[in-house]
Amino acid sequence: MFRFAHTELLYLLAVIPLLVLFYIVMLRRKKKAIAEFGNPELLAPLMPLLSFKRGAWKFIMVLIALFFVIIGAAGPQFGSKLQQVKKKGVELMLVLDVSNSMMAQDIKPSRLEKAKLAISRMIEKLSDDKVGMIVFAGDAYVQLPITTDYSSARLFLSGINTDIVPVQGTAIGAAINTAVRSFTPETETSKAIIVITDGENHQDDAVAAARAAREKGIFVHTIGMGLEQGAPIPQKGSPGQFMKDGSGNVVVSKLDESTLREVAKAGEGLYIRASNTDVGLNTLLDEVNRMDKSLLEERVYSDYAEKYQYFLLAGLFFVFVEFMILGRKNRHFMKINIFKDRTINE
Protein backbone atom coordinates (compact mmCIF):
# COMPACT_ATOMS: atom_id res chain seq x y z
CA MET A 1 0.00 0.00 0.00
CA PHE A 2 1.06 3.59 -0.56
CA ARG A 3 -0.09 6.89 0.86
CA PHE A 4 1.05 10.40 1.79
CA ALA A 5 1.03 11.65 5.37
CA HIS A 6 0.51 15.28 4.27
CA THR A 7 -1.47 15.17 1.03
CA GLU A 8 -2.12 18.93 1.15
CA LEU A 9 1.54 19.56 0.25
CA LEU A 10 1.04 17.80 -3.10
CA TYR A 11 -0.83 20.88 -4.31
CA LEU A 12 2.57 22.56 -4.52
CA LEU A 13 3.29 20.41 -7.59
CA ALA A 14 1.06 22.83 -9.49
CA VAL A 15 3.93 25.33 -9.24
CA ILE A 16 6.07 23.23 -11.64
CA PRO A 17 4.04 23.86 -14.88
CA LEU A 18 3.86 27.54 -13.93
CA LEU A 19 7.65 27.64 -13.66
CA VAL A 20 7.96 25.93 -17.06
CA LEU A 21 5.67 28.53 -18.63
CA PHE A 22 7.61 31.34 -16.99
CA TYR A 23 10.93 29.89 -18.25
CA ILE A 24 9.65 29.61 -21.83
CA VAL A 25 8.46 33.21 -21.80
CA MET A 26 11.77 34.50 -20.41
CA LEU A 27 13.78 32.40 -22.92
CA ARG A 28 11.83 33.84 -25.85
CA ARG A 29 12.36 37.37 -24.55
CA LYS A 30 16.08 36.73 -24.24
CA LYS A 31 16.36 35.40 -27.79
CA LYS A 32 14.28 38.30 -29.08
CA ALA A 33 16.53 40.80 -27.30
CA ILE A 34 19.61 39.25 -28.95
CA ALA A 35 17.90 39.23 -32.36
CA GLU A 36 17.35 43.00 -32.09
CA PHE A 37 21.14 43.48 -32.29
CA GLY A 38 21.42 41.58 -35.58
CA ASN A 39 21.47 38.19 -37.22
CA PRO A 40 22.05 35.54 -34.50
CA GLU A 41 24.33 33.53 -36.81
CA LEU A 42 26.54 36.57 -37.35
CA LEU A 43 26.60 37.38 -33.62
CA ALA A 44 27.50 33.79 -32.60
CA PRO A 45 31.31 34.27 -33.02
CA LEU A 46 31.11 37.31 -30.77
CA MET A 47 29.55 35.21 -27.96
CA PRO A 48 31.31 31.84 -28.20
CA LEU A 49 30.49 30.84 -24.58
CA LEU A 50 26.75 31.49 -24.73
CA SER A 51 24.64 28.32 -24.43
CA PHE A 52 20.85 28.16 -24.24
CA LYS A 53 20.90 24.39 -24.03
CA ARG A 54 22.97 24.41 -20.84
CA GLY A 55 20.53 26.83 -19.25
CA ALA A 56 17.66 24.54 -20.23
CA TRP A 57 19.39 21.53 -18.63
CA LYS A 58 20.04 23.49 -15.44
CA PHE A 59 16.37 24.49 -15.33
CA ILE A 60 15.27 20.86 -15.85
CA MET A 61 17.50 19.74 -12.96
CA VAL A 62 15.92 22.38 -10.71
CA LEU A 63 12.41 21.21 -11.64
CA ILE A 64 13.27 17.57 -10.95
CA ALA A 65 14.84 18.50 -7.61
CA LEU A 66 11.75 20.55 -6.70
CA PHE A 67 9.50 17.62 -7.63
CA PHE A 68 11.35 15.20 -5.35
CA VAL A 69 11.50 17.69 -2.47
CA ILE A 70 7.72 18.29 -2.60
CA ILE A 71 7.05 14.54 -2.75
CA GLY A 72 9.42 13.99 0.21
CA ALA A 73 7.83 16.79 2.25
CA ALA A 74 4.40 15.23 1.66
CA GLY A 75 5.60 12.20 3.65
CA PRO A 76 5.34 9.19 1.32
CA GLN A 77 4.64 5.95 3.17
CA PHE A 78 4.94 2.52 1.59
CA GLY A 79 3.60 -0.86 2.56
CA SER A 80 1.73 -1.67 5.69
CA LYS A 81 1.70 -4.27 8.38
CA LEU A 82 -1.05 -4.99 10.81
CA GLN A 83 -0.17 -4.58 14.46
CA GLN A 84 -2.27 -5.66 17.39
CA VAL A 85 -2.27 -3.45 20.46
CA LYS A 86 -3.66 -4.64 23.77
CA LYS A 87 -4.37 -2.23 26.61
CA LYS A 88 -4.66 -3.53 30.14
CA GLY A 89 -5.83 -1.45 33.06
CA VAL A 90 -8.59 -0.74 35.53
CA GLU A 91 -11.69 1.44 35.47
CA LEU A 92 -11.61 4.37 37.86
CA MET A 93 -14.50 6.68 38.75
CA LEU A 94 -13.62 9.97 40.43
CA VAL A 95 -16.54 11.24 42.51
CA LEU A 96 -16.08 14.93 43.36
CA ASP A 97 -18.13 16.92 45.85
CA VAL A 98 -19.15 20.33 44.44
CA SER A 99 -21.34 21.51 47.31
CA ASN A 100 -20.84 25.03 48.68
CA SER A 101 -18.88 23.69 51.65
CA MET A 102 -16.10 22.68 49.24
CA MET A 103 -15.36 26.39 48.78
CA ALA A 104 -14.05 26.59 52.35
CA GLN A 105 -10.43 27.70 52.43
CA ASP A 106 -8.94 25.70 55.27
CA ILE A 107 -7.16 23.90 52.41
CA LYS A 108 -5.70 26.47 50.03
CA PRO A 109 -6.78 27.91 47.67
CA SER A 110 -10.02 26.06 48.47
CA ARG A 111 -11.05 22.46 49.04
CA LEU A 112 -12.53 22.19 45.55
CA GLU A 113 -9.66 23.85 43.68
CA LYS A 114 -7.09 21.79 45.57
CA ALA A 115 -8.99 18.61 44.69
CA LYS A 116 -9.21 19.58 41.01
CA LEU A 117 -5.47 20.27 40.88
CA ALA A 118 -4.71 16.89 42.46
CA ILE A 119 -7.06 15.09 40.03
CA SER A 120 -5.40 16.79 37.06
CA ARG A 121 -1.97 15.66 38.21
CA MET A 122 -3.22 12.14 38.80
CA ILE A 123 -4.72 11.94 35.29
CA GLU A 124 -1.31 12.85 33.88
CA LYS A 125 0.10 9.71 35.51
CA LEU A 126 -2.50 7.35 34.05
CA SER A 127 -1.51 5.21 31.09
CA ASP A 128 -3.98 2.58 29.90
CA ASP A 129 -6.59 2.90 32.66
CA LYS A 130 -10.09 4.21 32.02
CA VAL A 131 -11.32 7.17 34.02
CA GLY A 132 -14.69 8.83 34.53
CA MET A 133 -16.00 11.67 36.68
CA ILE A 134 -19.12 12.16 38.79
CA VAL A 135 -19.99 15.50 40.40
CA PHE A 136 -22.45 15.70 43.24
CA ALA A 137 -24.01 17.93 45.84
CA GLY A 138 -27.70 17.37 46.64
CA ASP A 139 -27.80 15.03 43.64
CA ALA A 140 -25.19 13.32 41.44
CA TYR A 141 -24.46 13.73 37.74
CA VAL A 142 -22.08 12.11 35.27
CA GLN A 143 -19.60 14.79 34.27
CA LEU A 144 -17.41 12.49 32.15
CA PRO A 145 -18.35 8.96 30.98
CA ILE A 146 -15.71 6.29 31.45
CA THR A 147 -12.95 6.85 28.87
CA THR A 148 -9.23 6.67 28.06
CA ASP A 149 -9.33 10.17 26.55
CA TYR A 150 -7.31 11.96 29.21
CA SER A 151 -7.34 15.26 27.30
CA SER A 152 -11.14 15.32 27.50
CA ALA A 153 -10.92 14.41 31.18
CA ARG A 154 -8.76 17.45 31.92
CA LEU A 155 -11.05 19.64 29.81
CA PHE A 156 -14.18 18.55 31.69
CA LEU A 157 -12.34 18.89 34.99
CA SER A 158 -11.49 22.54 34.30
CA GLY A 159 -15.19 23.41 33.97
CA ILE A 160 -16.24 21.98 37.34
CA ASN A 161 -17.51 24.48 39.95
CA THR A 162 -20.16 24.69 42.66
CA ASP A 163 -22.76 25.98 40.18
CA ILE A 164 -22.63 22.86 38.01
CA VAL A 165 -25.16 21.03 40.21
CA PRO A 166 -28.52 22.81 40.70
CA VAL A 167 -29.41 21.19 44.05
CA GLN A 168 -27.15 21.87 47.01
CA GLY A 169 -26.42 19.36 49.75
CA THR A 170 -24.08 16.39 50.09
CA ALA A 171 -25.55 13.10 48.86
CA ILE A 172 -22.55 10.77 48.97
CA GLY A 173 -24.70 7.64 48.68
CA ALA A 174 -26.39 8.87 45.49
CA ALA A 175 -22.96 9.72 44.05
CA ILE A 176 -21.63 6.22 44.75
CA ASN A 177 -24.72 4.62 43.20
CA THR A 178 -24.37 6.82 40.09
CA ALA A 179 -20.70 5.85 39.81
CA VAL A 180 -21.57 2.13 40.03
CA ARG A 181 -24.01 2.50 37.12
CA SER A 182 -21.43 4.41 35.07
CA PHE A 183 -18.87 1.64 34.77
CA THR A 184 -18.65 -0.45 31.61
CA PRO A 185 -21.35 -3.12 32.06
CA GLU A 186 -20.67 -6.85 32.00
CA THR A 187 -16.88 -6.68 32.19
CA GLU A 188 -14.49 -8.39 34.55
CA THR A 189 -12.26 -5.34 34.70
CA SER A 190 -11.11 -4.26 38.16
CA LYS A 191 -13.08 -1.20 39.24
CA ALA A 192 -12.62 1.44 41.92
CA ILE A 193 -14.42 4.57 43.10
CA ILE A 194 -12.61 7.49 44.72
CA VAL A 195 -14.94 9.84 46.63
CA ILE A 196 -13.43 13.28 47.25
CA THR A 197 -15.53 15.25 49.74
CA ASP A 198 -15.59 16.99 53.10
CA GLY A 199 -17.96 14.25 54.27
CA GLU A 200 -20.84 16.39 55.52
CA ASN A 201 -23.47 13.85 54.43
CA HIS A 202 -27.02 14.48 55.69
CA GLN A 203 -29.19 13.03 52.92
CA ASP A 204 -28.69 9.28 52.40
CA ASP A 205 -26.92 6.15 53.59
CA ALA A 206 -23.44 6.42 52.06
CA VAL A 207 -22.16 3.40 54.00
CA ALA A 208 -24.89 1.16 52.59
CA ALA A 209 -24.12 2.44 49.06
CA ALA A 210 -20.42 1.64 49.52
CA ARG A 211 -21.25 -1.84 50.82
CA ALA A 212 -23.52 -2.49 47.83
CA ALA A 213 -20.78 -1.33 45.45
CA ARG A 214 -18.29 -3.72 47.05
CA GLU A 215 -20.71 -6.59 46.65
CA LYS A 216 -20.53 -5.90 42.92
CA GLY A 217 -16.72 -6.12 43.00
CA ILE A 218 -16.08 -2.37 43.17
CA PHE A 219 -13.69 -0.89 45.74
CA VAL A 220 -14.65 2.45 47.32
CA HIS A 221 -11.92 4.82 48.54
CA THR A 222 -12.51 8.17 50.24
CA ILE A 223 -10.48 11.36 50.57
CA GLY A 224 -11.45 13.86 53.25
CA MET A 225 -11.11 17.46 52.11
CA GLY A 226 -10.81 19.79 55.10
CA LEU A 227 -9.07 20.30 58.42
CA GLU A 228 -10.29 19.46 61.92
CA GLN A 229 -10.93 23.07 62.90
CA GLY A 230 -12.94 23.69 59.72
CA ALA A 231 -13.45 27.01 57.98
CA PRO A 232 -16.28 29.41 57.04
CA ILE A 233 -17.84 29.16 53.58
CA PRO A 234 -17.24 32.22 51.35
CA GLN A 235 -20.35 34.02 50.14
CA LYS A 236 -20.58 33.97 46.34
CA GLY A 237 -20.24 37.40 44.77
CA SER A 238 -19.30 39.04 48.09
CA PRO A 239 -15.55 38.98 48.68
CA GLY A 240 -14.68 38.82 52.37
CA GLN A 241 -18.22 37.77 53.33
CA PHE A 242 -19.23 34.32 54.60
CA MET A 243 -22.42 32.27 54.54
CA LYS A 244 -24.63 32.56 57.62
CA ASP A 245 -27.38 30.40 59.05
CA GLY A 246 -30.92 31.50 59.84
CA SER A 247 -29.77 32.99 63.15
CA GLY A 248 -27.14 35.16 61.49
CA ASN A 249 -24.20 33.05 62.65
CA VAL A 250 -21.33 32.32 60.28
CA VAL A 251 -21.51 28.72 59.01
CA VAL A 252 -18.33 26.77 59.71
CA SER A 253 -17.79 23.67 57.59
CA LYS A 254 -15.86 20.86 59.27
CA LEU A 255 -14.55 17.59 57.92
CA ASP A 256 -16.76 14.63 58.86
CA GLU A 257 -13.95 12.13 59.13
CA SER A 258 -15.91 9.38 60.87
CA THR A 259 -18.41 9.06 58.01
CA LEU A 260 -15.69 8.84 55.41
CA ARG A 261 -13.84 6.19 57.38
CA GLU A 262 -17.01 4.10 57.58
CA VAL A 263 -17.65 4.50 53.85
CA ALA A 264 -14.11 3.39 53.01
CA LYS A 265 -14.37 0.46 55.41
CA ALA A 266 -17.66 -0.68 53.86
CA GLY A 267 -16.14 -0.41 50.39
CA GLU A 268 -12.93 -2.19 51.50
CA GLY A 269 -10.95 0.82 50.37
CA LEU A 270 -8.62 3.36 51.92
CA TYR A 271 -9.45 6.58 53.71
CA ILE A 272 -6.97 9.47 53.37
CA ARG A 273 -7.28 12.91 54.91
CA ALA A 274 -6.06 15.68 52.62
CA SER A 275 -3.80 18.48 53.75
CA ASN A 276 -2.41 21.66 52.27
CA THR A 277 0.64 19.75 51.05
CA ASP A 278 -0.89 16.48 49.82
CA VAL A 279 -4.42 15.49 48.81
CA GLY A 280 -3.59 11.80 48.83
CA LEU A 281 -4.52 10.83 45.28
CA ASN A 282 -0.99 9.57 44.57
CA THR A 283 -1.33 7.11 47.44
CA LEU A 284 -4.63 5.89 46.06
CA LEU A 285 -3.17 5.67 42.56
CA ASP A 286 -0.49 3.34 43.91
CA GLU A 287 -3.27 1.25 45.45
CA VAL A 288 -5.16 1.20 42.14
CA ASN A 289 -2.01 0.14 40.27
CA ARG A 290 -1.74 -2.89 42.55
CA MET A 291 -5.16 -4.08 41.45
CA ASP A 292 -5.44 -6.85 38.88
CA LYS A 293 -5.40 -5.28 35.42
CA SER A 294 -7.41 -6.90 32.69
CA LEU A 295 -7.79 -6.34 28.96
CA LEU A 296 -9.62 -3.05 28.39
CA GLU A 297 -9.15 -2.59 24.68
CA GLU A 298 -7.72 -4.46 21.73
CA ARG A 299 -7.00 -2.71 18.47
CA VAL A 300 -5.55 -3.67 15.10
CA TYR A 301 -4.01 -0.90 13.04
CA SER A 302 -1.78 -0.48 10.00
CA ASP A 303 1.79 0.63 10.41
CA TYR A 304 3.37 2.33 7.36
CA ALA A 305 7.09 2.65 6.62
CA GLU A 306 8.32 6.23 6.12
CA LYS A 307 10.23 6.69 2.84
CA TYR A 308 10.50 10.49 2.61
CA GLN A 309 14.28 10.41 3.06
CA TYR A 310 14.85 8.75 -0.33
CA PHE A 311 12.95 11.47 -2.15
CA LEU A 312 14.80 14.22 -0.30
CA LEU A 313 18.13 12.58 -1.16
CA ALA A 314 17.07 12.40 -4.82
CA GLY A 315 16.18 16.09 -4.70
CA LEU A 316 19.58 16.89 -3.18
CA PHE A 317 21.28 14.86 -5.92
CA PHE A 318 19.63 16.84 -8.71
CA VAL A 319 20.49 20.11 -6.96
CA PHE A 320 24.13 18.95 -7.01
CA VAL A 321 23.87 18.05 -10.72
CA GLU A 322 22.41 21.49 -11.47
CA PHE A 323 25.29 23.09 -9.60
CA MET A 324 27.85 21.12 -11.62
CA ILE A 325 26.39 22.17 -14.99
CA LEU A 326 27.93 25.48 -16.00
CA GLY A 327 25.64 28.12 -17.37
CA ARG A 328 27.96 28.74 -20.32
CA LYS A 329 30.50 26.78 -22.33
CA ASN A 330 33.88 26.00 -20.80
CA ARG A 331 36.85 27.25 -22.81
CA HIS A 332 38.89 24.17 -21.89
CA PHE A 333 36.22 21.72 -23.07
CA MET A 334 35.05 23.48 -26.21
CA LYS A 335 36.24 20.53 -28.29
CA ILE A 336 34.36 17.97 -26.15
CA ASN A 337 31.00 19.63 -25.92
CA ILE A 338 28.41 17.04 -24.89
CA PHE A 339 25.69 19.62 -25.38
CA LYS A 340 26.76 20.19 -29.00
CA ASP A 341 25.99 23.92 -29.02
CA ARG A 342 26.85 25.10 -32.54
CA THR A 343 24.87 28.27 -32.95
CA ILE A 344 23.27 30.88 -30.75
CA ASN A 345 19.86 29.54 -31.77
CA GLU A 346 20.31 26.37 -29.72
Largest sheet: 6 strands, mixed
Report, as a whole number of angstroms, the end-to-end distance: 45 Å
Total helices: the number is 10
Arrangement of strands in the largest sheet: 5-4-3-6-7-10
Q: Radius of gyration, Cα only, in angstroms? A: 37 Å
Topology, number of strands: 11
- Which whole number gives the mean pLDDT? 83
Sequence-ordered SSE layout with sheet pairings:
Layout: E1 2-4, H1 15-35, H2 40-43, H3 52-73, E2 76-89, E3 91-97, H4 111-125, E4 130-136, E5 140-147, H5 150-158, H6 172-182, E6 191-197, H7 206-215, E7 218-224, E8 231-232, E9 252-253, H8 257-266, E10 268-273, H9 281-289, E11 294-306, H10 308-324
Parallel strand pairs: 3-4, 3-6, 6-7, 7-10
Antiparallel strand pairs: 1-2, 2-11, 4-5, 8-9
Structure explained in plain terms:
- The chain is 37% helix and 22% strand.
- The protein has helices spanning 15-35, 40-43, 52-73, 111-125, 150-158, 172-182, 206-215, 257-266, 281-289, 308-324, and strands at residues 2-4, 76-89, 91-97, 130-136, 140-147, 191-197, 218-224, 231-232, 252-253, 268-273, 294-306.
- The strands form three sheets. The protein has a six-stranded mixed sheet with strand order 5-4-3-6-7-10, sandwiched between helices.
- Strand 4 (130-136) and strand 5 (140-147) form a beta hairpin.
Summarize the structure.
The chain has 346 residues and is an alpha/beta fold.
List keywords for this structure.
346 residues, alpha/beta, six-stranded mixed beta sheet, three-stranded antiparallel beta sheet, 11 strands, elongated
